[in-house]
Structures are given as C-alpha cells and as structure tokens.
Q: What sequence folds into this?
C-alpha cells in the first residue's frame, strides 16, 4: 500500500529567551504559579528581524537537509499558522521564496493550535495523490506579537517557534502515516479567539488601544474541553488502527499545559515515559508544538523504524485532531 512517510524533520526558535522570572517584573505573577499550573519555565520570543516565514524556512531547511531533498525538488509547502507575516500574501509563498523552492506552490492552513495536524493531513493527501512528490508540512508561530503582555492570564503561556517535516511516498507497507482524524466545533469559538484585526472588527486606533488583536481565552473552560477532546480523538485513532495504549511507543500531545498532557495520558493509559514533553523550555507555541517535539524526539534518537507514534492537538475553533504513524 502506498503511504506517505516522514523523510526529515526540523525546527527553529528565536534566540531571545523570556524566563518566568522575567515575567515576574512584567505582570503580577510568580515562577511558582506558572511552573505549577502550566509546567512552563521559559519561552523563546521574537526580536526585530524575526518573522514567522523566516523561522518556518529555517525549520524547513533543517528538515530538507535531513531528508536529502533539495529546495527545487519540493512540490508543495503547507504552512499552519495563526500568526502570519501578513494577511496577504500567504506564508507558504514567502517560505517558498526564502527557500528558493520555485517548483513548489505554497499555502496556509488556519486551525490554531491544531493547525499542524491539519497541515500534515493535507500533506499526506497530496502524497497519496502523487507518491513521488515531496511535500513539506510546517507549523510556525510568532505568538508574542498577538499576546497581551498586560494580561497575566495569557501572557505567561505562549512562545514562538517553528517545526517542519518533509513527506514522500513509500511502498514499505510497515511504515508511514496510518490514519488522520480531524474535528472542529465552531459553536465554541468564543472560548479561545482573537477578536480584532479581521473583517468583523477591523484595525482601528481603539482596537489597538484595547489590545483586541491579542489572544483572549477562558482558560479553565478551554482546559476541560482540551482534556476531553484530545482523549476522544486519540482513542479514535487507536481504534481505527486496532491498536491499544501499550502499542504506542511515543505520544506527542500539543504542549499547552503539563496538567492537560498528564490527564490525557492518564485517561489513555499511556505511561508518562512514553509521552514527549518539552513545554518547560518553549511554552505553548500553538501549531509549532507538535512538529518541534517530533523533531527533538527524532534527533534525540527516540524514534526507531517501525515505532508507533501518536500526534494529538487541540486549539481555537475549537479545532482538534490526531495522526497515527509508524516511524
Ligand atoms: N499568575 C498568578 N496568578 C494567576 C495567573 C498568573 N499568570 N493567571 C491567572 N492567575 C490567577 C487567576 O486570576 C485566578 O485567581 P482568583 O482565584 O483570585 O480569581 C487563579 O489564578 C486561578 O485561575 P484559573 O484560570 O482558574 O487557573 P487554572 O488553574 O485554570 O490555570 C491556565 C489557568 C493555565 C490558563 C489553564 O486553565 C489552562 O492551561 N487552560 C488551557 C489552555 C489551553 O489548553 N490552550 C490550548 C489551546 S491555546 C491556543 O489555541 C492558542
């Protein structure tokens, strides 16, 4: 059977680090509160000159290098982001320019923290359609530009990062992406959204003054849905592949909160030593968390050919999804 397989992974973060101690001087918070409630110790934050497309291109260069694929051999670039360089053009076209991948076409997918799972699902379909093609799926975010640095409820959570994978077809029946599972429920949009800057509430001096271009979240409500829906979709992926928790070699959940990850793993009965966690170093980087974690696990030698890997993400929309693959 023809499946798509990950040939290379890459990631990149801005140089600047903002620690919990730095945040203590910005808002009424403490390292103790942030660490115990979220698991986060520090996050990387963009400086002048950093852009989402440049960070995405850097992560992709690393993935292409590992895959042994040249930029001119890339056919499709799918970028997931909620923090694009501009509303127009799309980030995929800019990543194409930075890489010199002029034989490819690029476009963006927009599903908040679940975005990478959406991007990888779309990339998988392109490869299934044309197995010899080389398709890149990216999750890239500079959330620091849409974070309200005066709101302690949200500003301690987010960070900036990009992660990428390169896919192509394989005839090796034992490896590749086994199944993809996507969901959304637009009725719940208000619990996690950015009110301003779109066409409903366009840019204005008042909008900027109220910082309504920033992320607004009812954290405890989001928390409950995240635990339930990430568990449900992971079970859906396990059932579809007739696999149980013991078969999962590595579970890579969206890194939004260590407590969410632990609860989901507990409900799935996947022990914590098989759950990839790096939230302490990056915070919640939205659609970049899963590909960054995948790249770290890959480069650290935690993935062997044939390993079962379960990706699981949840975010604004609400949007959520899981992907089961055999490494
Ligand atoms: N420092 C100190 N105190 C704080 C801070 C802070 N940074 N933030 C909130 N508090 C206070 C609150 O004001 C509240 O005080 P009160 O009891 O006097 O009113 C108290 O801490 C508890 O607040 P809660 O919101 O109930 O805290 P909770 O334990 O729920 O943790 C958190 C908040 C971390 C946001 C959690 O709810 C969470 O992780 N939610 C899910 C986030 C998520 O999964 N997002 C996923 C997608 S993100 C995306 O798509 C971009």
A:
């Amino acid at each position: 059977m023809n499946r798509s397989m990950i040939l290379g992974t890459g990631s990149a973060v801005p140089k600047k680090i903002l620690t919990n101690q730095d945040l203590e001087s910005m808002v009424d918070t403490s390292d103790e509160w942030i660490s115990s409630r979220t698991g986060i110790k520090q996050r990387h934050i963009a400086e002048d000159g950093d852009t989402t497309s440049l960070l995405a291109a850097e992560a992709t260069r690393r993935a292409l290098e590992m895959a042994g694929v040249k930029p001119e051999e890339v056919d499709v670039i799918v970028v997931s982001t909620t923090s694009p360089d501009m509303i127009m053009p799309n980030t995929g076209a800019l990543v194409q320019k930075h890489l010199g991948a002029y034989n490819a076409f690029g476009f963006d997918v927009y599903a908040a923290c679940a975005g990478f799972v959406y991007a990888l699902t779309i990339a998988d379909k392109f490869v299934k359609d044309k197995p010899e093609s080389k398709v890149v799926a990216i999750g890239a975010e500079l959330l620091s530009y849409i974070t309200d640095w005066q709101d302690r409820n949200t500003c301690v959570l987010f960070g900036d990062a990009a992660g990428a994978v390169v896919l192509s077809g394989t005839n090796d029946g034992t490896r590749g992406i086994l199944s993809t599972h996507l969901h959304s429920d637009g009725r719940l949009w208000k619990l996690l959204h950015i009110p301003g800057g779109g066409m409903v509430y366009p840019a204005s001096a008042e909008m900027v003054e109220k910082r309504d271009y920033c992320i607004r979240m009812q954290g405890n409500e989001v928390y409950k849905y995240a635990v339930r829906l990430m568990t449900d979709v992971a079970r859906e992926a396990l059932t579809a592949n007739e696999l149980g928790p013991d078969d999962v070699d590595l579970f890579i959940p969206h890194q939004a909160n260590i407590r969410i990850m632990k609860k989901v793993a507990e409900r799935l009965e996947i022990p914590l030593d098989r759950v990839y966690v790096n939230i302490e170093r990056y915070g919640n980087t939205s659609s970049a968390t899963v590909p960054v974690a995948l790249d770290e696990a890959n480069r650290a030698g935690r993935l062997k050919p044939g390993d079962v890997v379960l990706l699981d993400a949840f975010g604004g929309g609400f949007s959520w999804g899981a992907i089961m693959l055999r490494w």
